[in-house]
Amino acid sequence: MIKDQDYLKKIADICLSKSKKLGSTDASILVQSSVSENINVRNKKLDGSERSENLGVVLTTYLGKKKSSIASSNLKESNLNELVDRCIETMKITPEDEYNSLPDKDLHFSGLKDLDLYDETHLSNEDKINYIKEAEDEAFSNNKIVNTNGSGFGENKSNFLLANSNGFADGYKTSQFTAYCEVVSKSNGSMERDYEYTSKRFYNDILKPKELGSIAADHAVKKLNPKKIKSEKISLIFDKRISKNFLSIFASAISSSAIAKGTTFLKDKLNQKVFNTEININDRGDIKKANGSRYFDSEGIGIINLNLIKNGILQDYLIDTYNGKKINRKSNGRASGTTNLYFENGSKTFSELIKSEKKLLYIKETIGHGTNIINGDYSVGASGIMIENGEFSYPVSEITIAGNLNNIFQNITLADDLEFNYSTNSPTMHVEGMIVGGK
Amino acid sequence: MTFLLKNSELSIEKADKIVSETLNCCDDGELYIEDTKSETIVLDDNKIKSSNYTSDLGYGFRAVTGDTVAYSHSNEISEKSLKNSSDNLKSTLKNNSGTYNSEIKKTNQKLYKDIDPIESKSMKSKIELLNNMNEYARSKDSSVKQVTASLLAEKKNIEIIRSGGELLSDNRPLVRINMSVMVEKNGRKETGVYGIGGRQDYDEYLKNDNWKKVCDEAFRIANTNIESKPSPAGEMKVVLGPGWPAILIHEAVGHGLEGDFNRKKTSAFHDLVGKKVASKGVTIIDDGTIDNRRGSLNIDDEGTPTERTVLIEDGILKNFMQDRLNARLMNTKSTGNGRRESYKHVVMPRMRNTIMLGGTNTQEEMIKSVDKGIFAVSFGGGQVDITSGKFVFNCTEAYEINNGKVGAPIKGATLIGDGPSSLKEILMVGNDMMLDPGIGTCGKAGQGVPVGVGQPSLLINNMTVGGTQL
Questions:
Q1: Would you call A419 exposed, middle or buried from its count of C-beta atoms within 10 A (0-12, 13-18, 19+)?
Q2: Domains of chain A (ranges, CATH numbers)
Q3: The Cα angle at residue A368 between residues A362 and A374, in degrees rounded to 5
């Protein structure tokens, strides 16, 4: 069972009062409790079960502008006392940093908690196994699926309390139901794997098992017998599961920590055109039941909705208290990063997008870590499907795609097929003229 | 004699009893108890940005029967909690029964000292070191605009209680010193990253002002990249430098030779044992027994002593890397590759120090033989798709080769290849085998574990380079 708010509060009080007694001027604390249960199935047979019970505390103490942190999973009072001692001792000898402080009291979250982030539904292991077996059954009904890498179902419940010495103390429960199916297809000596994944706060919102299985099978079969193509400059279509990655890159490039240090290609771009004029990007924390929704960030600051890109122009950064001070801005509640980040829909349909040029390469998967936030260089391995005259023609693999994000962002056209499946979401994306490395 | 249960509400007798009673009708399993202390101190933007100390204590209880694994872990070390876990394991495995295999090899292997690297250097001297690194790196050139330096130390003590009461333990120190330098010149920004580490005290790595070399190297890479030109795109010859570029070996063949993927027949290598998978002269080992190396372990996380496992010998595929589960199902023995990130994670076959042994060629010869290609000296990270065998890695320092000569530095390019075929494309194996500086972390199924790599210079006939210049 996850611990209740009273239990979390008791732990928080022990640590906060002890740190005050030992001379800290300020302190903040996070206490978390979670229970997760996962089931793995492979080739329609139970492969494993996993139950985890996690407890944790993170304490940060301040002495004026000096700061130190400890974290522990051992919540016994004797251990907590020892760790608080250690935290205070370290804090005293850590150099001052003028930007260290608790967050601005006026920005603390206070309000209604009505976003529906917790579903108390509990599935027995039997039910989980049945769900995921049904998904694998469906995948295996495709005769080119010969094996699975394993499929799984997970249920996670958690509760937390965030408190600080300025009087903030709040927390809430969240839930997450996750299922994935990863299958292996085989034909004419070619073997490929692919997956489908669904994750929602409410059990009723996840994909039905048959859909999960059939989509995974379809992905894996479409990759069979790929060709390697010649190196060329070509326009790309990014499948929704890849196009959202550009939003994540964008988010790290406008984090106040990168902006303050100058380690981003989007430094000094505020109020400038970063995307073309049809592009709008929002970050909203108040969508009911959504994966990225939250009431406040890891400092207790209430989440406000941000219109980050309006008609292609950069309107705002993602700001926390510490880095905000460095750039003379107040926190906008993004100490834990983005919430529900998304591109607004474009004006073209998916079918118009794939018919927009005679030859297009549809990217379904990228591998590698080839994004350089500092200068915007982008180079990753990829696989996908060639589109000729608006029709999917043959799978392509063992290629690279490269460009610079400054150009890529300016050359994006979006379809009108946005869905809120993850916390970061994008419609299908067309990017004009990128360099493919192949034969 | 248990140390980790010493101050808990759970006595060793009670723990033994619950473990034996739970596992006696299973094929395998154990209670794994872990006490990890770690400390991270980061200097960023001229300031000590954070000092974090973490103390993590918990257990993972595992029962295995056939190919089914039941796992339950918790931070609450008590009889009640362990009983709950036991009930949970039993309910998963209720329809299965097995015969407990109590056989496990013994060892007196001592590859690193039982030290606490966090306590053996004072907080004051750590802060002073980071400040010195920052000042030294910034003093190298006015183009240095940003410096991030960090110190990470960890002491992980583990105990494994098997059915029948056998107790195995290991105390593992680990340190890492990292440096990242950003250089800005003529409107361009580039970074250089370097680090060192292993299973010894900080001072062993800091002898003779070695920290200056770490700064020098990070600055050198950044400064080289500031002059870099766009990378070519397409297939060409590639010369790899010695040491860290062996993450090519790790990605191209290492993961594909882990027992689980081969037992499940999802690896591109699963039916290739005894067959030629690499050029003649290519021998690759996975060695957990090198003193003080980041990937070394006295025993793995199932209690099996580590060993030097030959994976590929003179081009022929010899062995997979095994944990106990996959070894049993494939009728072979564990090679001591059963590892987990922590008590929160299930055991899987994982690499330790994966190394290609040296050959006879010189790096000079290799470069001389290339008309048009690239010379890759350092990499950021890599990734592989086990099933299709396709792997990538990202260059952080590379040069063009024209007519047998090393030319201008080129921008961070991704190299992509096919695991089972790329090792057959190796044309020359260098005589300059080198281990990496001790900073590698390998990720698999969401679990990160410290690993090492090593290789000599290599000439590869054909790889696809992902640049922007057609």
A1: exposed
A2: 5-34+53-105 (3.30.2290.10), 125-222 (3.30.2290.10), 226-439 (no CATH)
A3: 100
CB contact under 8 A, A193 and B70: no
Tell me if residue A161 falls in helix, strand or coil: strand
Q: How many angstroms separate the CA of residue B308 from the nearest CA in chain A? A: 28
Flag whether B184 is in a domain.
no
Minimal Cβ distance to B346: which of A48, A192, A326: A48
Give the closest of A83, A375, A437 to B464, CB-based: A437
Alpha carbons A384 and B11: distance in angstroms, whole number: 57
Q: What is the pTM of this model?
A: 0.94
pLDDT tens, per residue, chain B with 470 residues: 677 787 788 899 999 999 999 998 899 999 999 999 999 999 999 999 999 999 999 999 999 999 999 999 999 999 999 999 999 999 888 877 888 987 888 888 999 999 999 999 999 999 999 999 999 999 999 999 999 999 999 999 999 999 998 999 999 999 999 999 999 998 899 999 999 999 999 999 999 999 999 999 999 999 999 999 999 999 999 999 999 999 989 988 999 999 999 999 989 899 999 999 999 999 999 999 999 999 999 999 999 999 999 999 999 999 999 999 999 999 999 999 999 999 999 999 999 999 999 999 999 999 999 999 999 999 888 888 888 888 998 999 999 999 999 999 998 788 999 888 889 999 999 999 999 999 999 999 999 999 999 999 999 999 999 889 88
Residue B264 sits at the chain A interface (C-beta within 8 Å): yes
Of B53, B70, B380, the CB nearest to A86: B53
Asked whether the beta carbons of A73 and B75 are under 8 A apart, the reply is yes
Residue in chain B closest to A129 (alpha carbons) equals B92
A231 to chain B, closest Cα gap in Å: 6
The phi and psi torsions of A231 (rounded to 5 degrees) equal -65, 135
